[in-house]
């Protein structure tokens, strides 16, 4: 009979980073609180080297800071690297995910419509044709209600628009957009069947880029982001209504 294989140091380190990152993002480890490394060792059953490596990673994300005479201090949100994909995932997994999605969509609204405008001006014929093909495949996946394929193609489409803008700084934001699209799907804030308008808007963006219509591309992409924000708010509100309805009535005072 084989004995279970012990977890590797890398596995323990990854698990601790995940646990602490989620706790900080949720606020269970409050800003300015001090983490004792010996307590983390005992609480999580890991070695001092694992704890040090985990806190080093979180410090690189701005979530922790090592201070002389104080120790390891939890940092407030304004110190975090909010563009780090892992930080985005932790914030989306927290109870404040709707606020996080709203903030990310506001950032998308500032960047993606302009990227679409620039793509209409700068995209090569091949890149523009590929976008039209991607929009068609996205439409087909949406009509089939193939959510996994739709998500994959949606991420690819938005990344392609950012690349086609010809602005390398826009292009590097594709990971951020991918986290937004993935997060809203994983947390049930995406309609089961994409709306017809959303599918058509992706086609409109691709077609406008192919025709070099900068203002049309900008307007269609802006509407995509606006619709995403509206859907998130509507679905979250419906979830909250269902949750409230399932709670037993409470006595109120006058």
Q: What would you say this structure looks like, in words?
A:
The protein is elongated. A hairpin with a 3-residue loop joins strand 2 (64-67) and strand 3. With 254 residues, it is mainly α. The model is unreliable at 1-6, 242-246 and 248-254 (pLDDT under 50). Helix 5 packs parallel to helix 10. It starts with 8 loop residues before the first helix and ends in an 8-residue tail after the last helix. The longest helix has 33 residues, at 214-246. The protein has helices at 9-26, 37-44, 48-60, 85-93, 97-122, 125-143, 147-164, 168-171, 174-186, 196-211, 214-246, and strands spanning 34-35, 64-67, 71-74. The chain is built from eleven helices and three strands; from the N terminus they run H-E-H-H-E-E-H-H-H-H-H-H-H-H.
SSE diagram, text form:
Elements lengths: L8 H18 L7 E2 L1 H8 L3 H13 L3 E4 L3 E4 L10 H9 L3 H26 L2 H19 L3 H18 L3 H4 L2 H13 L9 H16 L2 H33 L8
Antiparallel strand pairs: 1-3, 2-3
Helix pairs in contact: 1-3, 1-4, 2-3, 4-5, 4-9, 5-7, 5-9, 5-10, 5-11, 6-7, 6-10, 7-9, 10-11
Keywords:
254 residues, mainly alpha, 3-stranded antiparallel beta sheet, 11 helices, 70% helix, 4% strand, disordered N terminus
Distance between the termini: 68 Å
Shape: elongated
Task: Report the sheet-strand fraction.
Answer: under 5%
In round numbers, the mean pLDDT is 89
Report the oligomer.
Answer: single chain
- CA radius of gyration is 22 Å
- Helix proportion of residues, in percent? 55-70%
Largest sheet composition: 3 strands, antiparallel
Q: Helix/strand/pairing class, anyone?
A: mainly alpha
How many runs of DSSP E, i.e. beta strands?
3
């Amino acid at each position: 009979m084989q004995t279970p294989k012990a977890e590797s140091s890398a596995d323990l380190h990854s698990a601790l980073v995940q646990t602490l990152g989620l706790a900080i993002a949720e606020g269970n480890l409050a800003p300015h609180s001090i983490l004792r490394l010996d307590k983390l060792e005992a609480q999580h059953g890991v070695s001092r080297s694992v704890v040090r490596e985990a806190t080093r990673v979180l410090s690189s994300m701005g979530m922790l800071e090592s201070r002389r005479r104080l120790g390891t201090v939890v940092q407030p949100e304004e110190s975090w690297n909010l563009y780090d994909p892992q930080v985005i995932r932790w914030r989306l997994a927290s109870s404040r995910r709707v606020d996080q999605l709203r903030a990310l969509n506001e950032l998308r609204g500032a960047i993606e419509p302009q990227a679409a405008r620039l793509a209409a001006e700068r995209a090569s014929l091949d890149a523009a044709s590929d976008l039209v093909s991607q929009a068609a495949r996205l439409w087909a996946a949406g009509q089939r209600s193939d959510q996994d394929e739709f998500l994959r193609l949606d991420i690819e489409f938005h990344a392609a628009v950012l690349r086609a803008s010809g602005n390398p700084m826009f292009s590097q934001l594709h990971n951020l957009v991918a986290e937004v699209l993935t997060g809203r799907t994983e947390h049930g804030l995406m309609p089961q069947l994409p709306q017809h308008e959303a599918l058509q808007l992706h086609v409109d963006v691709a077609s406008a880029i192919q025709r070099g219509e900068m203002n049309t591309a900008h307007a269609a992409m802006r509407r995509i982001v606006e619709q995403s924000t509206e859907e998130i708010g509507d679905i979250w509100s419906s979830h909250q209504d269902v949750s409230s309805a399932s709670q037993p009535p409470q006595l109120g005072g006058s």
